[in-house]
Amino acid sequence: MTDNRTWLVTGAGGMLGQDVLARLSQSGERYVALDRKALDLTDADAVSAALEEHRPDVVVNCAAWTAVDDAETREDEALAINGDGPRHLAEACARTGAVLLHVSTDYVFAGDATAPYAEDAPTAPRSAYGRTKLAGEKAVLATERGYVVRTAWLYGTGGPNFVRTMIKLEGVKDTLDVVDDQRGQPTWSADLAGLLVELGRGALAGTAPAGVYHGTSSGETTWHGFTQEIFRLLGADPDRVRPTTSDAFVRPAPRPAYSVLGHGRFAEAGIEPLRDWRTALTEAFPEIHRVHLKENTA
Question: Which residues belong to any copy of the RmlD-like substrate binding domain (predicted)?
C-alpha cells in the first residue's frame, strides 16, 4: 500500500475506468471503484455522500456522456453528465480536500488549427458534446485542486472503439473507405490511465500544478492512416483501406478536422508525455485482437 492514500474512480465500468483501476492495482494503491450504477454524478447529494464516506485523496472522473451525435438533440441530458456531474464532484472535492482529475476532450476546440493546440489555446466547441465537456472543464478549473486532462481518439480492450470496429470490418469488407482529412492522435486507454495515476501522484506531491494537461499519444495521423496501421498489424493489405473525405460521412455533430494536442504542461511538471501512437498501438494490438476473437467465436 502506498502511504495509506485512497483513490476514487468514477465511471469505473468504462474502458478508461477499467484501465485506471488496473494501473492502481498494479501500483499497490488503495482505491474505490464506482460505476454509473453505484454513483449518479447528476445527483449532487449522492456525490457529496460518496466523498464523505470514502474520503479519497484523489478522485479520477472517467464518467462521461460520449455519444457525440446523440448530444446534438439531447444536449440537456449530456450537459447533466458532462457539465453538472464534474461540478458536483469539484464542489465535493473542494469540501473534502481531494484532488480531482477530470478527463475531457479535444472537442472543446474548433478543430481548425494547423499546429498542435497548447493547453491554454482558446476553446471554441462546434458541437453540443464539445459545449457540455467545456462546461465540465470550467467547473473543475474553478477550484484550486482541479485538473483537466484532455484526450482524443481513445481505444482499448474494455469497450467499443475504432480499433475493434476496424478489426471487425477487415474480416467482412474487401475494401474500406476511411476519412483522410481529419488529423489526430490515436491514444491507448492503458497509456492514459498510467498518465493519470502519475499526475495524481504529482498533484499530491506538489510537483504538478493544477490546471489543464493534454493526455494524447505523441505523433499524429489521419483516420485513414490509423486504419492502415491496424490492417498491417492484422497482416492484411493496407491498400485495401482507401482514403476519402469527411463529406462522405456526414454526421449530426461536426468532427474536428485537426485534433492534435500539445503536451507542454506535462513536461513542465516533470512527467514524460505519452509515447508515439504507433508504438503504443503495436503493444496494445495483440490483446485487443485476442478479445475480439474471443467475443466473436464464443
Answer: 8-287
CB-based contact 182:222 (threshold 8 Å): yes
User: Which residues are catalytically annotated?
Assistant: 129
Cα–Cα–Cα angle for 214, 202, 22, rounded to 5 degrees: 75
Residue 176, in any domain of the structure:
no
Range of the domain at 16: 6-159+185-219+260-275
**Do the beta carbons of residue 116 and residue 185 sit within 8 Å?**
no
For residue 1, what pLDDT is reported? 43
Please report the pLDDT score of residue 283 as a whole number: 98
Longest dimension (CA), the chain: 57
Number of domains in the chain: 1
- Evaluate whether residue 255 is within a structural domain: no
Distance CA 190, CA 260 (A): 19
pLDDT at 155 over 90: yes
What pLDDT, in 10s, does the model give residues 211-244?
Answer: 999 999 999 999 999 999 999 999 999 999 999 9
CB 139 within 8 A of CB 114: no
